[in-house]
Amino acid sequence: MDEAALDQAFRALKTVLGARATRAMVHRIGYSRDWSPRHRSHTDLPHIVVVPHSTDEVVEIVKIAYHHRVPIVPFAGGTGMGGGVAAWKGGIAVETKGLDQIVELDEANMMVTTQAGITIWALNEELGRSGLWFPHQPESKRACTIGASIGCDNDSTFGLRYGKILDYLSNVVMVTGKGKALRIGRRKAAFSSTGYKLLDLVVGSEGTLGVVTEATLRVFPLPEARLVRGYICRSLDDGIQALERVLAGGISVESAHLNCRQRLHFYTHAYREKHQREPDIPGWAEAILFLSFAGDEDVVKFSLEKATCILLDEFGVEELREQEMVDGWWASKHSLEFIPFRQKWPDSQREKKFGAADLGLPIGRVEEAYQRFVEIAANWGQDVLGMTVYNEAPNKPTASISFAVFVDDSSKESVANFYNYVKEMSTMAVEMEGTMSSYIGDGDRLGGFNELEHGDSYIYMKRIKEMFDPRGIFNPGKKFESRWITGA
Ligand SMILES: Cc1cc2nc3c(=O)[nH]c(=O)nc-3n(C[C@H](O)[C@H](O)[C@H](O)COP(=O)(O)OP(=O)(O)OC[C@H]3O[C@@H](n4cnc5c(N)ncnc54)[C@H](O)[C@@H]3O)c2cc1C
Q1: Ligand 1 centre from 223 Cα, in Å?
Q2: What's this model's pTM, rounded to 2 decimal places?
Q3: Which ligand 1 atom sits closest to the C-alpha of 441?
């Protein structure tokens, strides 16, 4: 990095932002990594940290970065699992959480326009005052922002009913290129057949095309009631087919997460610790399906009863009698506090880090993928945490899968082996006609290697990037380059 250019850029940033531009080490350290497994030697310090409060200020920041050819890395909650915020090429970390104001709540059209750095939690607190909510909720919602949900196209607990962020999003403002604020989308319309769908391009772009500063989103009435249940299945396939059948019967399910037997044991851990005995779960259990139903009280009750009938009568599934386990599972979806996680974390693994390959697969290949996951993890010396199948499209079973392992991030070799594991899993996804990532994104893991998935269309992706980002300043080292995985 050219030190003189950095000095000049910093001075220019100071004139725009005053104390909200800093080079102090204490701040740089705060923006040096996310939740992805990495050894401490791979902690990346950005050179400068800035905290803009408006689109206009982001425009000025981008103009300065463009002029001095300094990288820009948008930073939100820092809970990403793929190294999306890793400033391994240095540059300016743009703390987006200063962009936290709601611009307009349009109740007549059930739309909210908000600055992009607001957390999903804070947005929902505000909407709740009007009896509304924004159901796109990753488990990290207390820290995760709207801009990052757009940036990495993450999953939501309620995906089976409401889908992914694109199912809510109708407009964004993104500062791109030489510092131009572009309005992209279809205003407040739900559909548009005009032009190209640039909004789709922004979703999942991980800050490589620009900084999203504003978003217009669909909101919903808060449901009156919710019931959550767990069901024990004889196989993963049984769980998937049972869900397919429930949905085909016309029942609206709010969320459905299917866990493999290792994950099941993970959930029983807290129970065992508390009661000093095994929970009441049959020995034949190969998977556990958690379902939630939400809406008017009588509809929810009926939906639960009907779904349970289908599951028990047609698929030999058993209802999980330990409701405490179901409640614990549900609580762990809605808290970033450490306790629910610690409770279910086996003692032997507390020193290790959660790491995952996040594949999107055709629904019929889940069982096969699970067998291969266990083998591939063993080949790379990774301790299996387990597999969870998330459903992320409205009213249809889909397989967005977390293949999770425990990574010993105190060892460089173990971290390297984790990324080899991700590479082999990603190759498997392509062989199985799926995708390498369904919610984490490329981050600094899959760039370049993802050409294997995209073939010739990868070249078009590079050209698109050049059009939005002629000097390559937006989040360099992502999507087209990886520090961990090389060689297709
Ligand atoms: C405990 C825990 C639970 C999690 N649960 C889930 C889950 O249920 N589902 C799921 O999918 N993921 C989950 N994750 C992963 C992570 O929370 C998500 O990927 C989330 O989207 C990251 O949000 P963030 O605000 O922390 O973003 P960051 O990690 O700060 O950034 C993520 C990416 O978005 C880019 N970005 C951020 N803001 C902007 C912006 N304004 N404009 C352009 N680009 C931007 C960044 O540059 C980066 O590439 C979880 C993580 C943790 C630690």
Answers
A1: 26
A2: 0.96
A3: 19
Two tokens, residue 208: 């490589």
CA distance 252 to 262: 28
Q: Are strands 102-106 and 111-115 parallel, antiparallel or unpaired?
A: antiparallel
Measure the CA–CA gap between 319 and 315, rounded to whole angstroms. Answer: 12
The pLDDT tens digits for 277-322 are: 888 899 999 999 999 999 999 999 999 999 999 999 999 999 999 8
User: For ligand 1, atom 1, which residue shows the shortest CA distance?
Assistant: 140
Give how far Cα 342 sits from Cα of 179, 276, 350, 383, Å: 44, 17, 8, 17
pLDDT 10s digits, 207-238: 999 999 999 999 999 999 999 999 999 999 99
Whether residue 1 contacts residue 45, with contact meaning beta carbons closer than 8 Å, is answered with no
Q: What is the rounded CA–CA span in Å between residue 444 and residue 482?
A: 5
Q: What is the CA radius of gyration of the chain?
A: 23
334 SS3 class: coil
Handedness of CA 231, 232, 236, 237 (dihedral sign): negative
Grouping H, G, I as helix, E, B as strand and the rest as coil, residue 392 is coil
